[in-house]
Write a structure and sequence with these properties.
The chain has one domain (1-215): Urocanase like domains (Rossmann fold, 3-Layer(aba) Sandwich), CATH 3.40.50.10730. The chain contains ten helices and six strands; from the N terminus they run H-E-H-E-H-E-H-E-H-E-H-H-H-E-H-H. It has helices at 2-10, 32-40, 51-60, 70-83, 95-109, 126-130, 138-147, 149-171, 184-190, 210-215; strands spanning 20-24, 43-48, 65-67, 87-92, 116-117, 176-177. Helix 4 links the parallel strand 3 (65-67) and strand 4 (87-92).
């Protein structure tokens, strides 16, 4: 319902075939995102750093494909988008790398390859394993979290700033991003990322929340 209503409200589209939805998280509640994309008929690319979560969703049948190669992900995205095939593709890697690759594609080809975007990392708990920084691999980041939580926190906040910078570039070209109620925008703001709504008070963000703006 969230994906369908985002399409209706922001793309003015009842039919999401050929539309691309990019997000992250295939763990607990976020695991349904892959299934939702296919039910809605769009191309869903979902990033997840934990391979165990990807394998679980694939085994369930909620996730159609898994890849750790961004070149392959972009090729599959282009193919499914062109043929208007419903697809759920799990990218085994950090979502920041995925967003930055989509910016690169926009900069080099002029193509905006994503229509809808969100995030379901556990940003309500960003410094204790809810969000993994792009600068490190998954196992390396877990080790740093236990040995040097202060450094881990710094890397998370740097990563959040990169995360938002990439989203902002794509949103400026017409991609519609929303907050999934996971404190992503709040933590990004605390990290110093550019998420404030221009001309509004500090408690308002430039991107909508799925509760008030989409489900409501």
């Amino acid at each position: 319902l969230t994906v369908l209503n985002a399409g209706r409200r922001y793309l003015k589209a009842e039919d999401l075939s050929g539309k691309v939805f990019v997000t992250s998280g295939l763990g607990g509640m976020s695991g349904a995102q892959a299934k939702a994309a296919v039910i809605a008929g769009c191309v869903g690319i979902i990033a997840e750093v934990d391979e165990a979560a990807l394998l679980k969703r694939h085994k369930q049948g909620w996730l159609m494909e898994i890849s750790n190669n961004l070149d392959h992900c972009i090729a599959r995205l282009r193919e499914a988008r062109k043929k208007k095939i419903a697809l759920s593709l799990g990218y085994h890697g950090n979502v920041v790398d995925l967003w930055e690759r989509l910016v690169y594609e926009l900069d080099t080809t002029g193509e905006l390859l994503v229509d809808l975007g969100s995030d379901q990392t556990s940003c309500h708990n960003p410094f204790n394993g809810g969000y993994y920084p792009v600068q490190l691999g998954f196992e390396e980041a877990k080790q740093l979290l236990s040995t040097n939580p202060g450094k881990f926190r710094t890397l998370v906040q740097e990563s959040l700033k990169r995360h938002v910078a990439a989203i902002n570039k794509l949103a400026d070209k017409g991609m519609f991003f929303w907050d999934y109620g996971n404190a992503f925008l709040l933590e990004a703001q605390r990290a110093g990322a550019d998420v404030a709504k221009k001309g509004a008070n500090k408690t308002e963000f430039r991107y909508p929340s799925y509760v008030q703006h989409i489900m409501g």
